[in-house]
Automatic annotation (TrEMBL):
Identification of the protein by name: Phosphotransferase
Organism per entry: Coemansia reversa (strain ATCC 12441 / NRRL 1564)
EC number: 2.7.1.-
Family, per entry: Belongs to the hexokinase family.
Top-tier EC class: transferase
Catalytic activity, reaction form: a D-hexose + ATP = a D-hexose 6-phosphate + ADP + H(+); D-fructose + ATP = D-fructose 6-phosphate + ADP + H(+)
Domain of life where this protein originates: Eukaryota
Keywords: ATP-binding, Glycolysis, Kinase, Nucleotide-binding, Transferase
Boundaries of every Hexokinase C-terminal domain copy: 221-460
GO biological process, one term: glucose metabolic process
One GO term describing the cellular component: mitochondrion
SUPFAM superfamilies membership: Actin-like ATPase domain
Length: 465
């Protein structure tokens, strides 16, 4: 392919032939044609079927034990604990009976010690602080407070409020938890503090996102997170889940947590790996795992870009071969820098200059350096957005009957909210694989705060049961 056929945005004004050649090579590595995507979607569907048939497969397809939909008319206040990768929130969610919810929350940053050792005791302390600060700690005579617990990691659920941790993903790595019931671990920590709190529901963040979207719009079928990690949950018909041994739900449906971040893990057979992805994977805490997540989500994109920057610098094609202590540190390029760089249209690319020279501490960048940094940001981000469509298309086309009526998809996460054009590129790519008549039935909506609100809704549904 000649450089002329590549996107004109990848032409660097004032670049040397070697610099332009290197950029063109990157552009070709990161280019994902529809034909290539079609092959990836097919494999994704095959892996979904495999996960529906048996446990322990690449895509876990985990039954969440949520079998009902909220109607949107429920009212009342419910509590939730929302554990993400870096923060913990304790919330009180009030449902207004008209599909709307308001929440009041307290946010806590996970200290390093909690991430590596004392996680569940830390969560219990935060719950205690919340109850005391709001003067709602139940005394010995009062009934315990029910709380939903959003736990954004793969858990093999054994009931609505129990499940064993399959593995840690994203940044957490607390020893002694894999294979154990995370509700038990939390409940024990709450007991140690003498708190009358019952963990009434264990909810993946994607399940929460779906349920909060369903409270606002009953036609919601999928909940997706494009954030630090990525994953999705959807309503599957129980008869399609061959491995399901539980009772057939009255509704005929069960919400499944796909754990799609694991797609192509171990095998590395279909995703478009570049040497920069492989380098990231090799140095991550979970090599060969979460392959799809590592190309899409906020935890990793900055690191892919950092690998590219250093690869170019090492050939003296960028920053005159210079780097800095910060730039040499793994994870020092935050994905938010790419979001800012992608939309820097100032004549001298001043935002990018700021990132390179001030944040990353590499002085004297040239305009050519900054243009190249921008192209790297576009390539990494746009590949992520196009690849995101794979999971969406594979899931939607699994239940094609649903596409004949309006269906809503609730989405939350920093990539979706902040990455420029992420939604447009993702949905436009989806439209290439779904007939127009059906595509127009789909809406994508931001389910802001879905994971916390959703956990409270699941706690409410569990209470009704
Ligand atoms: C990771 C977790 C998954 C979660 C997702 C989004 O992929 O394994 O459970 O839903 O991140 O937070």
């Amino acid at each position: 392919m000649s450089s002329e056929s590549l996107d004109p945005r990848y032409t660097i004004k004032g670049a040397t032939a070697e610099q332009q050649q290197a950029v063109d090579m990157l552009a070709r590595q990161f280019l994902l044609t529809d034909e290539r995507l079609a092959g990836i979607i097919k494999e994704f569907r095959r892996r979904m079927e495999e996960g529906l048939a048996a446990d322990g497969k690449m895509m876990k397809m985990i039954p969440s034990f949520v079998t009902r939909r909220p109607t949107g008319t429920e009212t009342g206040s419910y509590y939730a604990i929302d554990l993400g990768g870096t923060n913990l929130r304790v919330l009180k969610v009030t449902l207004d009976g008209k599909g709307g919810a308001t929440s009041m929350h307290q946010k806590f940053t996970l200290p390093e010690e909690a991430k590596s050792r004392t996680l569940f005791d830390f969560i219990a302390q935060c719950v205690e602080t919340f109850l005391d600060d709001h003067n709602i700690r139940p005394t010995g005579h009062q009934p315990p407070i029910n709380m939903g617990f959003t736990f954004s990691y793969p858990v093999q659920q054994t009931s609505i409020n129990s499940g064993t941790l399959v593995q840690w993903t994203k940044g957490l790595n607390v020893p002694g938890c894999v294979g154990r019931d995370v509700v038990r671990l939390l409940q024990d920590a709450l007991l140690r503090l003498g708190l009358r709190v019952k963990v009434a529901a264990l909810v993946n963040d994607t399940v929460g996102t779906l349920l909060s979207a369903a409270y606002a719009d009953p036609s919601s079928q999928m909940g997706i997170i494009f954030g630090t990690g990525t994953n999705s949950a959807y309503y599957e018909s129980a008869s399609n889940i061959a491995k399901w041994k539980g009772p057939n739900p009255k509704s005929g449906e069960i919400v499944l947590n796909i754990e799609w971040g694991a797609f192509d893990s171990d095998e590395f057979s279909v995703l478009p790996f570049t040497p920069h992805d492989i380098k990231l994977d090799r140095k991550s805490i979970n090599p060969r795992k979460q392959a799809y997540e590592k190309m899409i989500s906020g935890m990793y994109l900055g690191e892919i870009a950092r690998n590219i920057v250093l690869w170019l610098a090492d050939q003296r094609l960028l920053l005159d071969g210079r780097s800095s202590e910060i730039l040499n540190d793994m994870w020092s390029v935050d994905t938010s820098y790419l979001s800012s760089a992608a939309v820097d249209n100032s004549p001298d690319l001043s935002e990018i200059q700021q990132i390179i020279e001030k944040t990353l501490n590499v002085p004297n960048s040239t305009l050519v350096d900054r243009q190249i940094f921008k192209v790297i940001s576009l390539l990494v981000g746009e590949r992520a957005a196009r690849l995101s469509s794979v999971g969406v298309v594979a899931t939607l086309t699994k239940r094609p009957d649903l596409l004949n009526n309006h269906i809503n998809i609730g989405i939350d996460g920093s990539m979706y909210e902040h990455y420029p054009d992420f939604e447009r590129i993702m949905s436009e790519t989806v439209s290439h694989f779904i007939p127009e008549e059906q595509f127009k039935n789909i809406t994508f909506n931001c389910a802001k705060d879905g994971s916390g609100v959703g956990a409270a809704i699941v706690a409410m549904l569990a209470e009704q049961n």
